[in-house]
């Protein structure tokens, strides 16, 4: 067990989950994660990680990213890169700043290695985040995840997304379109055929108007059925979407060890962590099948170990992300996963992550 898990985590897990997140973020910003000798870290990374992954015209230093929601306002990118993550997806960012839902809105389910959140896109707004990212030195790939403001109706969603898209365009290496958070009423209806087509075609057209295009990725829910997955893949292909991020949190509460009374007490929100691991891997496989392997997938949901990450890669993901596993495992998480992935590649006689993508589906 790491120092974090045996000492720091028990302390952090005594305070409310969102406060613990804020304390953790303050630790990171205070320089806790910044290694004293950068070159030493660079050489260590070269040995201990599966190495760079080229996708979407970008070079990801390694295949593991921080999933959206951890760094909603782009304040921790440098620190997260220093912990060994190859990319950070900032956001979800909305056009106007939002407070999000009232607290408490983040809950731990330790028996299930899970979290439930109903944060509701609390963020400082697109202008503030874009301004911050524009001043930052890049040490890893930085995606920006965009969503719609809570007080905007779905019929006006396209304009709302477009305005955010234009603001973050110049500072984002890729832009993730979030239509899958369960905490903004009606948002997930944007995954339905006509709404999705309208949104994606508008964003693609807007993208084409810029001198430098950004890769657009679509982030989907794990709760879609096969028909809905096929619809999403179809819409992504038709509208030139470069990739799919699978998956967001689930609204399902099936198969949990946490008592039903406790689940009832917590209430609404998206469930993340171990309980979504298998379902998200399954969705990755379904996207690969439905797209004939043509749409790159970023796999996310319940990654705690290198084996979890590899399962997603062998189902068809070319990159992976994590949030909840990082919270439970602590600052050594990214290095451990990257080291483990390299070990798995060695054991299987594979040269690179690219060689492993989809091998479980052959
Ligand atoms: C506290 C919390 C906040 C999140 N906020 C966002 C968000 O703002 N936008 C988003 O697309 N996903 C958000 N997510 C979902 C994660 O990015 C990820 O898709 C999901 O948690 C599954 O991965 P995990 O099991 O590794 O946490 C959030 C997850 C958590 C736990």
What does this structure look like?
With 362 residues, this protein is α/β, with parallel strands linked by helices. It has a single domain, classed as Aldolase class I (TIM Barrel, Alpha-Beta Barrel), CATH 3.20.20.70. It has helices spanning 3-12, 17-32, 38-48, 77-82, 126-134, 157-168, 193-208, 226-238, 260-266, 274-291, 306-315, 324-329, 333-348, 353-356, and strands at 53-55, 58-60, 64-66, 87-93, 106-109, 114-117, 141-146, 174-178, 216-220, 243-246, 270-273, 297-300, 317-322. It has an eight-stranded parallel beta barrel with strand order 3-4-7-8-9-10-12-13, surrounded by five helices. Helix 7 links the parallel strand 8 (174-178) and strand 9 (216-220). Helix 6 (157-168) runs parallel beside helix 7, helix 7 packs parallel to helix 8 and helix 11 (306-315) packs across helix 13 (333-348). The longest helix is centred in the C-terminal third of the chain and has 18 residues, at 274-291. It is globular. The model is unreliable at 36-46 (pLDDT under 50). Bound molecules: flavin mononucleotide. Flavin mononucleotide (FMN) binds next to strand 4, strand 6, strand 11 and helix 12.
């Amino acid at each position: 067990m790491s120092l974090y898990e045996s000492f720091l985590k028990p302390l952090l897990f005594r305070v409310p989950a969102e406060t613990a997140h804020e304390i953790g973020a303050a630790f990171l910003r205070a320089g806790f994660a910044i290694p004293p000798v950068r070159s030493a870290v660079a050489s260590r990374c070269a040995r201990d990680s599966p190495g760079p992954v080229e996708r979407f015209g970008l070079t990801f230093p390694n295949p593991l990213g921080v999933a959206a929601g951890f760094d909603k306002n782009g304040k921790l990118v440098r620190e997260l890169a220093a912990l060994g993550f190859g990319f950070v997806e900032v956001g979800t960012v909305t056009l106007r700043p939002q407070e999000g839902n009232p607290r408490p809105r983040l809950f731990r389910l330790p028996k299930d290695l899970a979290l439930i959140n109903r944060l509701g896109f609390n963020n400082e707004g697109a202008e503030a985040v874009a301004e911050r990212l524009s001043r930052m030195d890049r040490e890893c790939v930085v995606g920006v995840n965009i969503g719609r403001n809570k007080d905007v109706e779905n019929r006006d969603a396209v304009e709302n997304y477009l305005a955010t898209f234009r603001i973050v365009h110049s500072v984002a290496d890729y832009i993730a379109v979030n239509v899958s958070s369960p905490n903004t009423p009606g948002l997930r209806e944007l995954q339905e055929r006509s709404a999705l087509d309208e949104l994606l075609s508008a964003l693609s057209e807007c993208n084409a108007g810029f001198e430098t295009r950004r890769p657009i990725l679509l982030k989907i829910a794990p709760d879609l059925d096969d028909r809905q997955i096929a619809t999403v893949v179809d819409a992504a292909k038709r509208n030139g979407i470069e990739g799919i991020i699978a998956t967001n949190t689930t609204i399902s509460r099936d198969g949990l060890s946490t008592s039903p009374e406790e689940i009832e007490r917590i209430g609404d929100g998206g469930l993340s962590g171990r309980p979504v691991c298998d379902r998200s891997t399954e969705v990755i496989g379904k996207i690969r099948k439905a797209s004939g392997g043509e749409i790159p997938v970023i796999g996310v949901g319940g990654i705690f170990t290198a084996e979890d990450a590899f399962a997603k890669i062998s189902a068809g993901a070319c990159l992976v992300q994590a949030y909840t596993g990082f919270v439970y495992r602590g600052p050594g998480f990214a290095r451990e996963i990257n080291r483990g992935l390299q070990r798995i590649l060695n054991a299987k006689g594979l040269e690179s992550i690219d060689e492993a993508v989809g091998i479980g589906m052959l």
